[in-house]
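New to this. Explain the following:
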Amino acid sequence: MAVNSPFQKLQADLGVLISTIPAGERLLSEPKLAKQLGVSRATLREAMRTFETQGLIRRRQGAGTFVVGQVPVLESGLEVLESIETMAQRMGMTVSVKDFRVEQVLATEKQIQKLNVPLETPLIRISRVMSTNKRPAAFLVDTLPSDFLSEDELPDKFRGSVLDFLIARGDSPTMAKIAVNARSAPSYVAKALEIQRGDVLLRLSSQLYLDADQVIDYSIGYFLPGYFNFHVLGRVHL
């Protein structure tokens, strides 16, 4: 591919440099790397975002930037909502759960709109980090009415998927309303995923319906772009 601009040349040079460093090794510090490549730190940081999005490098707060190397990408069509575990099993990969936390909260203005419940309705909020190949890849939060799911019902060896748990319990959702967009990582998500605050993530939110009127779960997931590929299969109307 032809290099048509100084920025493209920087990306090409940076790509070559990254390819020569073994996975798990740390890159030079930003000041040293910027000096070596003859660019400003701001320009270098912008060029590095391309490789972060691809999942080839990862910045860790206070530790530096590390080479990840090529990683398997979890793919899913949004026509059918499925868990990370289901995606991983289909591809022969393993996932693990860490930083698992369950909280009792009261419904806020935003949550009453998403769950169709009165203000200050008791809710249960389940948050966790999902890792693939021992690397944090997604931060998930599910919020449900506590009269539909209580903390005591969750099994000791919860595998991370509220959706799979509900299906196994016999409460299979009939519909899901899904939205996907790009978001800058809030500080608490960046810390959980071991990235920098402000890094771009895929944000997927969904409302699960048990019937036409009953929303049973409002979930938000932040996904590292280089690890996930969500797509939609559309039918052409003739």
